[in-house]
């Protein structure tokens, strides 16, 4: 199945008080690689090993190549990256008024921190798992949710 992750405040903390993050090495600091949620790289590897396609679905305009390189420094190699540019294009094509619409990209499960995205999921019939910043059970929630897709 195809699983996507939001970035801001889901995998990447927007502030220092967000959630525990993985250790960055000297090279990552020099390159200005963003911090990533502790456990994220193991989780994504785990999901990919289970046979899922795993990628990024963000409403930010980060340059894709830079994002891909930065994620690679954590050992993360996403199967796809969707940024706001394509997101807007697909939403406009479908005349859908929401912030994200995972079915447009054949995504079966989307992980996000936004209750708004959860509401959109109910309204437009797509599956989400919403993870709060202080959720210590987030890894298990996602693994369980993904198992349901196998
Ligand atoms: Mg977010």
From TrEMBL:
<protein>
    <submittedName>
        <fullName>HAD family hydrolase</fullName>
    </submittedName>
</protein>
<dbReference type="GO" id="GO:0016787">
    <property type="term" value="F:hydrolase activity"/>
</dbReference>
<keyword id="KW-0378">Hydrolase</keyword>
<dbReference type="InterPro" id="IPR036412">
    <property type="entry name" value="HAD-like_sf"/>
</dbReference>
